[in-house]
Amino acid sequence: MLILVALRNLMRHPRRTFAVLLTVAIGVGSIFLFDGFNTGIMNQYRANAIHARFGHGQINTVGYREKVYEKPWEHWIKDARKVAQDVSGLEGVQQVFPRVEFFALLTNGRVTVSGRGQGIDGPEEAKFFYTLNVEQGETLSDQKDGILLGRGLARALDVKPGDRVTVLGNTIEGTINGLDLVVTGVFHTGSREMDDVMFRIQLDQAQQLLDTDRVESMALGLASLEDWDRVATAVTRAHPELEAVPFAVLDKVYYQHSVDWLKQQFAVIQLIILTIVLLGILNTVATAILDRKQEIGNLRANGESFWDVMKMLAWEGLALGALGSLLGLLLTMLLVFVGLRNGILMPPAPGLTRQFEVFIELQAPMAGITFLMGLATAATGTMLAGWRVARMRIGQALRSV
Q1: Is beta strand 112-120 parallel, antiparallel or unpaired with respect to 198-202?
Q2: Which tens digits make up the pLDDT trace of 41-79?
Q3: pLDDT tier at 95 (50, 70, 90 boundaries)?
Q4: 59 near 243, Cβ under 8 Å?
Q5: The pTM is what?
Q6: Could you give the CA distance from residue 175 to residue 185 in angstroms, rounded to a whole number?
Q7: What is the DSSP annotation of 14-44?
Q8: 123-133 pLDDT, tens digit each
Q9: Helices 306-334 & 2-12, crossing angle to 10 degrees?
Q10: Are strands 198-202 and 146-150 parallel, antiparallel or unpaired?
């Protein structure tokens, strides 16, 4: 009965009802939209970290990342081929990328600069690491004597695809060794720190330069990010001398800190929006209820208790919250799927060198959460606004004009 009375009361004042519905819809829609925007940015960061640098995670010998060794190659992975075969057979693992990193000098015959090299399995990595953004030439694939240069490194050497570059480094025994390579392309990941020093060559070329058959690490490409914990446990169980580290730890400064910052920012903005919505509802509903003093007085005079009146107001608030929240969610989905389906072009983030597109990714669980937020806020605002009027003496309420 109270539900029907509450709905009739809302229909008696269409303008005020519409004002509250619009307030709730804008608040709920804003929170839902901003969460989708944040999710899109975080997924973009994650894709860049996985498909440009680390894969879903990396295998090293235990403790290798936490310590600095005088001769780090002594702590690299032995029997790399067998380990790679074992790991490839684990459920959820699609690709294994053995790698060697080293420092070397690069020269074009006129200019010599230092760089950080990475020996990779070119044909395999070309398929998985697709966010490198090769801006000139082509990525390192099956070119035996190829070298892929970071944008800053290519500028420092003043070279372009097809030019020759000599890489000079030390073997693990300390003797000088060199490689004469051809530039296949110039890439950028968006991270200036990486683009200014990084270059990539074939793994066998790097091992020849260093005179070793070991690998420093193995990056993993999984079927799904959710497979990581199971794969990491299986790796350490089969090879106790190894440890598996997820990409979020490997890229903590760029990825994990960014995600933590975005989550905290969302929590603050969410609180601000809910406060504004609550104040808007209080203002609109309080005005409406003040005009309904005689109506509430008549209800009390006819035997309705204070709590009966509060229940009626609560049902009014819940109805406003449900309809307003539903309207906000529908308008947001319409905006995203029609107006923003091509994404939003964002300027370079701190530490990045390129623009990137963010696609707003609306999440079904968040739709439910924001709906409940709108429901609770509208009901709370309505009850707070009606509390004082419902507690008035019956005679005083009936004399109100």
Answers
A1: parallel
A2: 888 888 888 887 889 999 999 988 887 777 888 889 988
A3: very high
A4: yes
A5: 0.76
A6: 29
A7: HHHHHHHHHHHHHHHHHHHHHHHHHHHHHHH
A8: 888 888 877 78
A9: 60
A10: antiparallel
Q: Where are the beta strands (DSSP E) in 203-262?
A: 217-222, 242-246
Percent of the chain with pLDDT over 90: 38
Q: Give the residue among 399, 389, 371, 294 at the shortest CA–CA distance from 31.
A: 371
Residues in the chain: 401
Question: How far is Cα of residue 314 from the mean position of the Cα atoms in its chain?
Answer: 38
304: burial class by Cβ within 10 Å (0-12, 13-18, 19+)?
A: middle
Helices 2-12 and 14-49: crossing angle in degrees, nearest 10, is: 100
Q: For the residues 311-318, what does the mean pLDDT come to?
A: 83
3-state secondary structure 7-21: HHHHHHCHHHHHHHH
Distance CA 394, CA 396 (A): 5
Supply 38's token pair. 């944040």
Find which of 2-6, 178-182, 281-285 is predicted with most confidence, using mean pLDDT.
Answer: 178-182
Angle CA 72–76–79, to nearest 5? 155
Residue partners of 121: CB distance under 8 A and separation at least 6: 97, 98, 202, 203
The H or E element containing residue 95 is: strand 93-107
| Amino acid (one-letter) located at 11 | M
Residue keyed to tokens 């910052």: 261
**82, 98 Cβ separation under 8 angstroms:** no
The two three-digit tokens of residue 351, written as one number? 């530490």
Token representation of residue 64:
């290798």
Let me know: does 29 contact 367? Beta carbons within 8 Å. Answer: no
CA end-to-end span of the chain = 27
| Contact indicator for 196, 153 with CB cutoff of 8 Å | yes
